Amino acid sequence: MSGQSDTFEGNVQIRVFDRAYRVVGTGTATGGTNGTYGSFSASITYTVRVTQTGIVEAYFRSAKDGSVMGQADVRVRLTTATPGTEPRPPITYVVQRGDNLFRLALRYNTTIHAIANANNIANINLIFVGQKLVIP
Questions:
Q1: What does R_g of the chain's alpha carbons equal in angstroms?
Q2: Residues 11 and 70 in one domain
Q3: Number of structural domains in the chain
């Protein structure tokens, strides 16, 4: 995350919220340097179980009374993928009534075509209740 801070050599507080508005990551960056206003940059680690829309909130606290000032909220896409991490092992799933590849792909953070390819499914619109699928 990066931005322009109107703090005067102050700390910019950063919080990352998931789609349920739970805090999943926090951090601090310094805005301004050498007695000037200026830009800031921060890398914030967060944890979510599925890719989703979230919010990143940046603000600073007043030196006078500690109140939140200059707050900015940005809608972002939070992903589960972290470079260098091991991929999860495939999951075996038994198709239930009402399932389709689109819903399964959303649930397991994959694609329709990845599921179809892993299971040799020629028609992505045709799966059966009780069918066992490998979810890559």
A1: 22
A2: yes
A3: 2
CA dihedral of 78, 79, 83, 89, whole degrees rounded to 10: 160
Write the pLDDT tens digit of every residue in 62-93: 778 888 877 888 888 888 765 555 556 788 99
pTM of the model: 0.51
Residues 46 and 109 in one domain: no
12 and 59, same domain (yes or no): yes
pLDDT digits (tens, 9 = 90+) for 29-72: 776 555 566 666 777 788 888 888 888 888 877 778 888 877 88
Strand order of the β-sheet with 52-61 is: 23-31, 10-17, 52-61, 68-78
The C-alpha atoms of residue 60 and residue 37 are separated, in whole angstroms, by 13
Q: CATH code at 122?
A: 3.10.350.10
Is the domain of 24 the same as that of 68? Answer: yes
Whole domain around residue 46: which residue ranges? 2-78
Contact 9, 35 (CB under 8 A): yes
Minimal CA–CA distance to 48: which of 16, 73, 1, 12? Answer: 16
Beta strands 68-78 and 38-41 are unpaired
